């Protein structure tokens, strides 16, 4: 990454995924610029930026066109060229991440989509002209874009739109030598992750049921980001790169990873209810017709 210059947007603190990616790139010689929103985040981001030798730390509000124009005007003046972009920005009213997705308000739906999805498109449109020699853009997504996850609701819908945007922008920008990809990290102890109710349960579930049976560390995602931003991935674009210990490939956890007593009692309770209070007399383990009946009852 020697001689490369990149913009990092979305660092909140030293536990942020964006910081893990930034640190990995800086360790390989990249020159970085950072943005922040509000004075509180500015006080956190500035010392981190200084620790990797960055002199460009700029305020940015992704919902404000003038603010983004100012950021890229400053980058054009100071650098003139950009090699890579990291977009790690998302927002939703955390009160609407609980309960039913159906109860999402129009206001929060629009705001969530604007900040969590459209901001990447808006920023990429400004960054692309500065990538005169080609470049790479990376954003962050999550499993909730692909499957229903607890307490994620409209954010999952926004992340699904973000992943679709990655594919469309990969086609739009490919002829200019600009690659666009996303990283889908597993549950981690970040500021964004802590906003999700029952985050500890989600962390433990992933740890138990992912094939590798290991937590996702900041360095893991940082390394993936470095790969996607560097020439090592020069033929990779339009992809969602999972860094989740393999959880994305699991359809149903292995029996040995489940609480068998809980699962058994849960099945028996549902089957009895579906049969009008009568227990299912068929042996689902040994009788083919019993298996069929058990399946019907469980559905």
TrEMBL record:
One GO term (biological process): fatty acid biosynthetic process
Metabolic or biological pathway: Lipid metabolism; fatty acid biosynthesis
Catalytic activity: a 2,3-saturated acyl-[ACP] + NAD(+) = a (2E)-enoyl-[ACP] + NADH + H(+)
Keywords of the record: Fatty acid biosynthesis, Fatty acid metabolism, Lipid biosynthesis, Lipid metabolism, NAD, Oxidoreductase
Biased composition (Low complexity): 282-299
EC number per UniProt: 1.3.1.9
Gene Ontology MF terms in the entry: enoyl-[acyl-carrier-protein] reductase (NADH) activity
Region (Disordered), start-end ranges: 273-299
Positions annotated to bind NAD(+): 10, 16-17, 37, 61-62, 89, 159
Domain of life: Bacteria
Active site (UniProt): 142, 152
Gene3D superfamilies attached to this UniProt entry: Enoyl acyl carrier protein reductase, NAD(P)-binding Rossmann-like Domain
Family assignment from sequence similarity: Belongs to the short-chain dehydrogenases/reductases (SDR) family. FabI subfamily.
Protein name as it appears in the record: Enoyl-[acyl-carrier-protein] reductase [NADH]
UniProt organism field: Candidatus Phaeomarinibacter ectocarpi
